[in-house]
C-alpha cells in the first residue's frame, strides 16, 4: 500500500506534545513523500472559546473551521516543524466530538494513516488509551499511530 495522505489530528490537549507528534508525522510522511493533513478538531464549546480568544468576528455568518485552525498556536507550531523538514501539508478544521470527527476526516481525506496523541490513563492502565484515541483506533478506515505523552508523572 502506498502512503499518500497522513492525517495528523490534534485537539486542545496536544499543545504540549507538538514536537513528538511532528517527529512521528515526519518519520511516516517524508520517506513516502506523502501529504500531511493537519487537522484541529474542536468540540462546539472549545470552538466557541477559541473564536472569542482569537477575536474572530462572531457576527460573521460562516467562519471556516480551517481558518480557525490556521490561527491556532498548535497548528502553527506543527507547520514550522513540517516546513523545516520540507513536508507538504494542508490544514483542516473540524467541529464535533473528537473521535467521530477524526474518523470522518480520515474518511473524507482518504487518509492512508492517522496519527493521534494521547496519554496513559494510569500507571497500571498501559493498554488503555483515552476514549478519543481508542475510538479512532477502532473506527478509522486506515492504520492509526498513537503518540503517547511521555510525562510519567513521577
Determine the N-to-C terminus distance.
41 Å
CATH class: Alpha Beta
Radius of gyration over alpha carbons? 15 Å
- CATH H level, superfamily name: HUPs
Q: What is the helix/strand order? A: EHEHHHEHEHE
CATH architectural arrangement: 3-Layer(aba) Sandwich
User: How many structural domains can be distinguished in the coordinates?
Assistant: 1
Average pLDDT for all residues: 87
Keywords:
5-stranded parallel sheet; alpha/beta; 6 helices; 154 residues; single chain; UspA
Summarize the model shown:
The protein is built from 6 helices and 5 strands; from the N terminus they run βαβαααβαβαβ.
Descriptive overview:
The chain is of the alpha/beta class. It is 42% helix and 21% strand. Strands 3-2-1-4-5 form a five-stranded parallel β-sheet, with helices on both faces. Helix 1 (18-32) packs across helix 4 and helix 5 (98-108) packs parallel to helix 6. The N and C termini lie far apart (41 Å). The mean pLDDT is 87. Belongs to the universal stress protein A family. This is UspA domain protein. Residues 5-148 form the UspA domain.
Chart the SSEs and their pairings.
Blueprint: E1 5-10, H1 18-32, E2 35-42, H2 44-53, H3 65-71, H4 73-84, E3 89-95, H5 98-108, E4 113-118, H6 131-139, E5 144-148
Parallel strand pairs: 1-2, 1-4, 2-3, 4-5
Helix pairs in contact: 1-4, 5-6
